[in-house]
Design goal:
By secondary structure, the chain is an alpha/beta fold. Helix content is about 35%, strand content about 15%. It contains ten helices and eleven strands.
Length: about 350
Amino acid sequence: MQHFTHLRDLNPTSEPQRAAALITRARALKAGAKSRALSDKIMGLLFMDPSLRTRTSFDAAAIKLGGQSISLDVGQGVWGLEYLDNVAMNGDKPEHVREAAGVLSQYVDVLGVRAFSRGEGLSSDEADRVIGAFRRHASVPVISLESAREHPCQGLADLMTAQEHFGALSEVNITLSWAPHIKSLPRAVPNSLLLTAAALGCKIRVAHPLGYALAPEITAEAQKYAAVSGAKIDFYTHQMPAIKGAQIVYAKSWGQTDALVAPPNDPSLANWMLEPEHFNEAHPDAKFLHCLPVRRGVEVSHAVLDGPRSSVLSEAGNRLWVQMAALEWLMQANNLTAEDVIDLQSLT
């Protein structure tokens, strides 16, 4: 069974053109190409956490691909779900993923799952147990709507947006910069930006305060992809700005690596909030990206978000097209599509 819950499902080391082919296909769909990859199919969308863009864009993707979607909210009309094996279920989770995934697999043809970090630490996020449980127990393809470790469709949309502005991704210079927040946030979005940019050959800087390094497993995986794609990755731990020459500036908050360091709302870290003057040494046409939602005046200034550099709305719009391309590939990879669906290999 082929799933798409992590970037590695695209095999960036052995099939390095697949991620690029998905973006190529997404741009074709955006330009008006048609697909019936979900014709007479039903997509189930299971949300353990809130969503605006992901829910709406996947609903729209299903309709545009000729299918339908059913959205379910865990804990709000759907039983709380236990995902750990061999535990006594004597708490507030009366149903196990084993049964839930098995039952849903009889109703839908593809299953999307959204399950953020449970706040149990980096090792738990790296294990990605919730999405892993659905991969093990579902008998239909599973696609991530964001998990504890990654948000792969967001990463593809981010790089599609960069390509639209600057062309060949091997030439694109990206800064991923940490941002302040009122609370400690998961790392799925910055993880996916780094992994996807590395797989697509970009030049990448990662800037963050002391104690906010990304997990070593993520940085090692990114370096592995870079070795194949030719990407250049620099990791920084210093004060802002770190965006000299950057064409894409991506500001995103994420939680501490070391609980003893300053929390993300510490006043001493307020200078990491992106302001227009931070772009003084960036590329003249530099664009600002963020996955949304964004806390204005906390993570990023109003002036940046409302200014000419901001591409956050078109970036969010691109979620629809990359998800359509990903669903098309996923259904084809599992022999669930009509014969006339485009062969992505032809785009490589």
